[in-house]
Amino acid sequence: MTSEARLEILTRIHRAAAGPNLEIERPPIPASTRQRAEIVAQFAEYAAEYRAEVHRASGADLPALLAGLLSGQNVLIPEGFPAQLFPQPATHKPQTTHADLAAYDAVLTTCAVAIAETGTVVLDHGAGQGRRALTLIPDWHVCVVRSEQVVDSVPEAVAALQAAVLAGRPLTWISGPSATSDIELSRVEGVHGPRRLSIVVVD
Amino acid sequence: MKIDLFITCLNDALFPQTGLAMARLLRRLGHQVRFNEAQTCCGQMHFNTGYQREALPLIRKFVNDFRNAEVIVAPSGSCVAFVRDLYPKAAEWAGDDDLLREVTELGKRTYELSEFLIKVLKVEDVGAYYPHRVTYHPTCHAARLLRVGDAPLRLLKNVRGLTLVELPASEQCCGFGGTFSVKNPETSTAMLADKVQSVMSTGAECCTAGDNSCLMHIGGGLSRLQSGVGVVHLAEILASTESMSAGSSETIGAMQVSAEALL
Amino acid sequence: MSAGGIHPARPFPEAARDTLQDAQMRRNLKHATTTIREKRFRAVAELPDWEALRTRGAELKDAALSDLAEQLLTLETAVKRRGGQVHWARDAAEACRIVTDLAASHGAREIIKVKSITSDEIELNAALEKRGIQAIETDLAELIVQLAGDTPSHILVPAIHKNRAEIRDLFRRKLGAELLTDEPKVLAEAARLYLREKFLSTKVAVSGANFAIAESGTVCIVESEGNGRMCLTLPDVLISVMGIEKVLPQWADIAPFMQLLPRSSTAERMNPYTSFWSGVTPGDGPQEFHLVLLDNGRTDVLADEAARQTLRCIRCSACLNVCPVYERAGGHAYGSVYPGPIGAILTPQLLQLEDENANTLPWASSLCGACYDACPVKINIPEILIYLRGQITPHKSHNLENTVESIAMKTAAWIFNEPFRFEGALKLARTGQGPLVQHGAIHALPGLLGGWTSSRNLPPFPAKSFRELWREEGQNDE
């Protein structure tokens, strides 16, 4: 039936669209003119406004910060996470079940891009980020963002993610921990996704 | 400037004092005014209610009646917005290219009173005197279609003796909407209730606006509640001067309804 | 059952009465719409050129719609290339059949759902139920609505009409949750516990789609709670039902919409979670993906040049929150899963202007224009409302009310066509109104106009009209 439906819908569209195709310009996204420090500071501020816990560290201090932050926790490490930053071998294996994932206290990842305009981190689930379930089931997500990964605006982020999307990779955009405002519009953090999001910005 | 008065059918029939006030004001500012008696109705009620076939002859008639006008000024944001915004749509939907051309030209010469004063004549102080406490309701079509912005407020601030009090939630529609108030009277009443409450909360003696249709609605609610608060068209405030005896029936003409209801 | 569909059971004025008389509902609605309105205002002001962004959003949607067949074919090819399957559905019944067949073929007794108005439009839950499959809504508000046996009243906040006390009672009753308080945090926790087990055990999920990118075969879901991520990631099989108007040609085109949508809907800079996926990702997420492309009246909307822009809608619900009619009458009055101003134009069009109750919706507006100002893709809703009124009026049924109105309007037009008739009519009215005028005002009118005078007085016709006074006093300057 679906081929019949396909033909009929396409025929109806052809009959409906009377005018010519509207051409649309897609000029390149101009690079931000703002100072990097300013962009990174805004990202940190906006991410914090969405109740993410934001830490800042220099490259040298990062391992100590992560060790302190995650001490005593059962931490899930996706493959490809830089070993020198957190000296624990990758604990994630492809056959790990969803129920297994629930046993971890926290997951530690990198990201693909971060956005100052909105305080968002974007995962493209490449090396160091793991498949999507890894950053979904454990209740605490710790995400390392290198300051040069922070872009100013959403269009810049979309441009930066183009290659990943065209390569067929999924994306997860994260702005603060899971939240709902469904009850009387009062915001509650933590419904189904990780209830705690920590972002470590590395300068 | 030679100004053609577009009085609108509602003002002609129910609020003649508004049209007279507008004419007096424009003359006082040194302009020549003319009322072409052929005019009746712009067709908005028909068009917006769904009777677009019936509205088309009225639109064509309007074009004929005002074809030779240099500028057209009306004491109604709604009717002007209709001419400017929807006449072209009416022509487009009817597939009449000649009409489209004509109404597009005509629209450029058609103004609501307050925008005409501020944007075209560039006067803010029209030398008016109106010793009352007044609140201003920005009507939807003047605000959102014509974008008159703060033009009416700038005019009111320059009226001597007038105390302007801010209307809370002023941008909210009063619920008139032409035949909306007839076809959905309960919802319209719920909107009106909030508007009337806002007006009463200001402690104003009267509420003004640039449209007698909205004022008829708000005034009708205020009158039913025996609130003692009246409504008066902006043109009547701007036309009032110290030489006219303050509180004359003409000055507060539109307030009569509520005043008499109190007796 | 959060079924719904798009067939209103009653005319709008009649349906509106329920909410208008419900004080609790009125308070909830007012609180919600006012809060979001104010928040949205701030969120929008933060971007440097919101107006340019709106224009861009409108242009991109128009461009995609002008080339819709090509875009859908490109999307189909790309999704298939990425290991997904694509189905085409002409109407609601066909879409439901596709989804239920797929779910049944996996032996599913339960499926989990991400909030999707499109699935509500086609009444998917009821169709699944008929096949013995239970659809579990996972969005908190949808869950509340489903447990209450209610229908959503708002696109974005479907349970906007329920307050915390009502929700606590519902959870106690239906989830057996022991709830000591009605704190939203506690209520959300109860939902989390109930649904966590479902997420981990259910094999088939159903979602809608906020956007789809043709060139890459990418589908997008925008959400807040993480229930979307759960449904899109954990089950073995994912079925996404998408209206054909959701497609955008290129990946770059998503940018303005990721700026416009969150700020217009929840009034946030960005919603907590957005997921993008292209077909099947080996080793990550569902290994079977089906995309159902739904027409269900959309090609009829597309065929109407004057109203085509309706299809730009990105379902943000900004128009609901600013609408004074929606604020008072509530979502249920619209009798469709699409409430508010957008519903008033979309619902009747999806039904080819042939549904008598849906045809009352274009009049459920005072034409105040707030919706047009708020719309992130610049749909001129007031203009389309007026257009649809014109399309519907000549074909209205000949009941008493319509006939009286039609005669009145035609008579008025005849009068207005000649100034002498107008003047004559005014004189007649002045004489005729005599018995109605009391204390200088009209307090009660007969017939169709009676609704007006139930809450407002009307000024009587004055002794002389403007034109009479002008002749006597004014005279033209020459």
UniProtKB/TrEMBL annotation, chain A:
Segments forming domain LUD: 93-202
Source domain of life: Bacteria
Protein name: Lactate utilization protein C
Matching Pfam families: LUD_dom
Listed InterPro entries: FTHF_cligase-like_sf, LUD_dom, NagB/RpiA_transferase-like
TrEMBL record, chain B:
Domain spans labelled Cysteine-rich: 5-82, 134-218
Origin: domain of life: Bacteria
One term of GO molecular function: oxidoreductase activity
Pfam family, one: CCG
GO-annotated cellular components: cytosol
PANTHER family registered for this protein in UniProt: LACTATE UTILIZATION PROTEIN A, UNCHARACTERIZED PROTEIN YKGE
Name of the protein in question: (Fe-S)-binding protein
